[in-house]
Structure formats: C-alpha cells, structure tokens
Amino acid sequence: MGLPPKLLGTDEYEVLHTRTHAKAMVLPAAALVLVGAGVGAGAALVPGEWRPAGQLGIALLGLLLALWWTVLPLLRWRTTTYTLTNRRLVTRSGIVSKTSKDLPLSRVNDVSSQRSLSDRLLGCGTLNVQTASEAGVIALVDVPEVEHVHQTMTQLLFGADDESRPAHA
C-alpha cells in the first residue's frame, strides 16, 4: 500500500512504492532464534528450588529481549517506506511518531546508486539523490531493486530519451 490518495496532489500519481530490503530482518530473526534457545536452556537449568518462579523470570526476560531485538526492528522495517510519484520522492518512517519527508523532483540534480558485493547478491543497494538544497546528498539505504528505482527516477527527471531538463526556478 502506497500513499493514500488524499496525500497526492492534482494530477500526481504514484510511480513506485517500496520499503527497505528484507535483509534488514536477518539479524532480528537470528536474535529471535538465539533468544528462544536461551530461554529454553535457561528454563531447563533453573534449580528445582527456584521453579517455577525462576522459569517465569527467564521467560519474561526472553519476551522483553524478543520485543526489543525482533519486534521493534520489524515494526521499524514495516513502517519505513520510499514512494516515488511523478512529482516527488516521499520517505516515511516511524512506529508511533511518524516522520514524512517530501523531496520535489524539481530540486533533484543527480541520482546515482551504489551496490556492494552483498547488495548485488541480495538485489538491493543505496540510492544517492543529490539535491539543489543544503541537504546535499540524500542516501536511501537498502533499496530493493535499486537499479530499477534509479532508472525510473532518472526517466522521471530527465525524460525517457535522457535529454537534459529545462532549467527551473
């Protein structure tokens, strides 16, 4: 699900909508497995005189760690999105407090992408958007199919035939 229609301007339409690559969830998934193993081992090693209170304490500690190391990163990942419309680039993030940044395409000077070896293997990369403002370069990290996003944004900026844009005010 992209931007709600009420957030789109007149004659504005969504071209592309994505979130950061799922590789962001690898460490939280590993943490969940380790927490589960730790809770199981810890509950089994609790001395008999401390049962069941000790086991309950370990389970509660495991639950807190799972929330902190797994659920929060999942919610951050699910709520961080990149949306490209025919007029602007919109980044949105936040679980409770939402942050939305709009970058009009008319202020973009250049778009480039970077892909490390692991990014190429996973099909993602970093999209660098150079702006005409003080912000300089905005880096969107772990963008899935970054080459496609780069090409789409370049076509919106410079036209399908890569002619230079007319100067803007």
Automatic annotation (TrEMBL):
<protein>
    <submittedName>
        <fullName>PH domain-containing protein</fullName>
    </submittedName>
</protein>
<keyword id="KW-0472">Membrane</keyword>
<feature type="domain" description="YdbS-like PH">
    <location>
        <begin position="77"/>
        <end position="151"/>
    </location>
</feature>
<feature type="transmembrane region" description="Helical">
    <location>
        <begin position="58"/>
        <end position="77"/>
    </location>
</feature>
<keyword id="KW-1133">Transmembrane helix</keyword>
<feature type="transmembrane region" description="Helical">
    <location>
        <begin position="26"/>
        <end position="46"/>
    </location>
</feature>
<keyword id="KW-0812">Transmembrane</keyword>
<dbReference type="Pfam" id="PF03703">
    <property type="entry name" value="bPH_2"/>
</dbReference>
<dbReference type="InterPro" id="IPR005182">
    <property type="entry name" value="YdbS-like_PH"/>
</dbReference>
